[in-house]
Fold YCII-related domain-containing protein.
Amino acid sequence: MRFMVIVKATTESEKEGALPDPQLLLEMGKYNEELIKAGIVLAMDGLHPSSKGARVKFSGKSRTVVDGPFTEAKELIAGFWLWQVKSLEEAIEWVKRCPNPHAADSEIEIRQVFEMEDFAPILSEEEIQYKIAKRAELPNQTANK
């Protein structure tokens, strides 16, 4: 099972030019090494503050672009991992071992990634196989069969 592990932003991480404390970077580096040695990491990265981003809002055929920053820092994403683990419980156990990703109280969200077999009730086997083949053409494509 693949899980997106989402590090929520904080007011501090959303500040322009904010960088993590060097000690935290060291601790996170060690944690990431453990994840890599365990063979569960498919992708990982941190994100710049939302002030450098944008949102595209949809309403029917209309598209509206809203530049950051966005309010409610705790609802924003500061970074992520994509993991391949056996269960949600395993993902939770790994997250519990993670250093606090911010100097203040923080939160990490774990969300399961859809796999093609999840779409079996609404897609034919031929459609599923076509989509699997197309995804396999993507560079750095993670397992999604």
Observations:
- The mean pLDDT is 92.
